[in-house]
Design a protein that fits this description.
437 residues; 20% strand; 5-stranded mixed sheet; 8-stranded mixed sheet; alpha+beta; 37% helix; 2 domains; Rossmann fold; BirA Bifunctional Protein, domain 2
Length: 437
């Protein structure tokens, strides 16, 4: 009889990845153990700096992003996943993490109780953009946000936190770029100066830059088209147009970073992709990522809370891409030991009576907080032992008719191949004793 093969008609959406419980050849970074390893270290670094976790919904009102990120940005105009709910509300899968955090702290009045509020988050974000390796339509973002202080020392702390996190996970091949994008007092004059300088070249530039020229001229500086990049390399530098307050803030930031021994490069054309940034903007890159070389970045947003309906509150934060962290680690050959999800104990049962006893013992072991498992498909002795070995269980408990009669179990250490009989009542104590050693 010819075997019929059913072809799977479904796959994950383009540039959205499954993160699997086992390493996958060629995509070892899509292993959930590695993700938890990185998440743990991010949480640990954030805790060292006094940041607390916040979680926001995947969906937010579309107008939140239009108002905060900016209608003229690529994110809002081209890249959001939008829908309308049954109540007629326009919703979007969140394309970034800062605006939802701002909405949450205003809604729940967190600033009233915590004038200096330091938060971090780990969550999924979505961009309906052209995908490629390291640039995914669904990606996990690690971020921090700090509210309530305009002190450049806080900017330096946020930047150092990001730099230290990358060092914690082994990415020492990193470059920090910083810039100041000015404020509402000095940026308008620069915007007009940039437009005046660009105008003679505008007919040669890409369609996006022509649109940005009218809607948001600073976004031209973020163009990736080589011809436009070459043109704009000679454009006026925003740093030369800063007001006294912005200039002093930037110089203070530089002094703090130098005091922290955090190396940096000044990138005069760094503007990032959000309209809400003021003063500090920064990005951390790595050469191992190729053309998509940004590990993450952020900046100061002193007017964002007020723009979203809250009290005037300065703020600064960053967002880092989990996937790019993991891809960079893999490219650098960084070896890690992901959290082991193997059971500590595997129970092998021979015969129906032994099986009932094994089920009861399994429950007792798990109730003691010990990870344990057994066969549920009726395998024989050798197949059950192979399964225990495949699951990498360090201990095996074998129960057969003879063990039942004697009130004992066979206790086997898979690492040393030593095996002995122990009373059933001693099982949990022996497992705990083994774990301590």
């Amino acid at each position: 009889m010819r075997k019929i093969i059913n072809h799977m008609p479904f796959s994950s959406p383009p540039y959205m990845n499954d993160v699997l419980p086992y390493p996958s050849p060629g995509n070892n970074w899509l292993h959930s153990g590695r993700w938890r390893w990185v998440e743990y270290r991010f949480r640990r670094v954030c805790r060292c700096y006094g940041y607390r976790e916040i979680r926001t919904p995947i969906l937010e009102l579309t107008d939140l992003f239009v108002r905060s990120v900016g209608e003229g940005t690529d994110i809002v105009s081209k890249e959001m996943f939008n829908l309308v709910d049954r109540g007629g509300r326009r919703l979007s899968l969140k394309p970034e993490g800062t605006a939802p955090v701002v909405r949450a702290i205003i809604e729940h009045e967190l600033l009233a109780a915590h004038p200096l509020l330091k938060l971090y988050y780990i969550g999924q974000t979505f961009r309906n953009e052209r995908g490629q390796k390291g640039r995914y339509r669904q990606h996990q973002q690690l971020g921090v946000e700090a509210f309530g202080s305009a002190d450049p020392a806080l900017d330096a702390e946020v930047i150092e936190l990001a730099v230290r996190f990358f060092r914690e996970i082994g990415i020492t091949d990193q470059q920090l770029q910083i810039n100041s994008v000015g404020c509402p007092n000095c940026r308008p004059a620069y915007r007009e100066g940039l437009k005046k300088w660009v105008k003679p070249f505008l007919s040669e530039m890409c369609g996006d830059c022509k649109t940005r020229y009218e809607v948001n001229p600073l976004r031209m500086l973020d163009c990736k088209v080589p011809h436009d990049v070459e043109i704009l390399s000679g454009a006026p530098k925003l740093l030369d147009w800063l007001c006294e307050d912005c200039r002093e803030h930037f110089n203070s930031l530089r002094r703090h970073l130098e005091a922290m021994s955090v190396p940096y490069q000044i990138a005069p054309q760094l503007v990032r992709g959000f309209d809400y940034y003021t003063k500090t903007a920064f990005e951390i890159t790595s050469g191992v990522l190729g053309s998509q070389n940004a590990l993450g970045g952020g900046g100061r947003y002193d007017g964002l809370v007020e723009d979203c309906g809250g009290p005037a509150t300065p703020g600064i934060g960053f967002g880092l891409g989990m996937e790019r962290c993991l891809i960079a680690m893999e490219s650098l050959g960084i070896e890690i030991e992901p959290e082991d999800e193997a059971p500590t104990v595997f129970l092998v049962a021979l015969g129906e009576s032994a099986r009932s006893a094994a089920v009861r013992l399994l429950t007792e072991i798990r109730s003691a907080g010990i990870a344990a498992d057994m066969d549920y498909v009726g395998k024989g002795l050798k197949a059950q032992m192979r399964l225990a070995d495949k699951l990498k269980a360090p201990l095996v408990l074998l129960i057969g008719e003879n063990e039942l009669k004697g009130g004992v179990v066979s206790f086997r250490n898979m690492q040393t191949s030593q095996q002995e009989m122990i009373p059933q009542g001693e099982v949990i104590r022996r497992i705990q004793s083994w774990a301590k050693n």
